[in-house]
Amino acid sequence: MNPQKRYEIFRRLRAENPHPTTELHYSTPFELLVAVVLSAQATDKGVNKATTRLFPVANTPAAILALGVEGLKEYIKTIGLYNSKAENIIKTCTILLEKHGGVVPQEREALEALPGVGRKTANVVLNTAFGQPTIAVDTHIFRVSNRTGIAPGKNVLEVEKRLERRVPKEFLHDAHHWLILHGRYVCIARKPRCGACIIEDLCEYKHKTIDDEDEKTTRKPQTKTARGTTVTKKRRSS
Ligand code: SF4
Prior knowledge:
The protein folds into three domains: 3-20 and 134-185, Helix-hairpin-Helix base-excision DNA repair enzymes (C-terminal) (Endonuclease Iii, domain 2, Orthogonal Bundle); 29-128, Hypothetical protein, domain 2 (Endonuclease III, domain 1, Orthogonal Bundle), CATH 1.10.340.30; 194-232, no CATH class. The chain contains eleven helices and two strands, in the order αααααααααααββ. By secondary structure, the chain is mostly helical. β1 and β2 form a beta hairpin. The chain is elongated, with a radius of gyration of 20 Å. The site of iron/sulfur cluster has 13 residues, from α8. The site of iron/sulfur cluster (SF4) has 13 residues, from α8.
């Protein structure tokens, strides 16, 4: 994919959603860290449901430690893998208090040293809580990057590195959220909604669903060009 196309893709994603952010509810870096740890193999909606009850009672390392593992489980037992997640969060709270004065560190290495925190979680926290231009490649970003041709790669690290190199600097901080949301709601795994996709004419995926009958009914008939002119898009004939 050439740089002009890539620029136009992000320009449109930004025009559609100028201030994207996570769908997880949080109000402090610590709350975000806990929410992201809980979100592994779980939906943001499910995590929000649990943290809506948990955070008013305990939203600091000390308060969660006071709950103890069993107490914490009571709040998060509706979330998959809650047993191991509860243990990791309790251990993380201990480390935060012992080594970081009870605050979430802003360095990747220190974050990744916390139990249950891998590269992806660290990237989300660095990006969303601390404003760093990191990209946490999850299943959605991996799929969208490969399908569109924005940053193809065989594994998540390869895609992450390519995105960091290829996404124009002005879009780098928010690229993470735009790509996740696009993958979650438009470029979905089973059958991408190409007929409703604002970057369809720029995407290089070979198996678009553009002619699918279901998509024809949802397709936006018009789109904006890079110069802001509204044009009617032609449907492909095959
Ligand atoms: S055109 Fe289809 S495959 Fe390409 S980004 Fe849009 S939804 Fe995904």
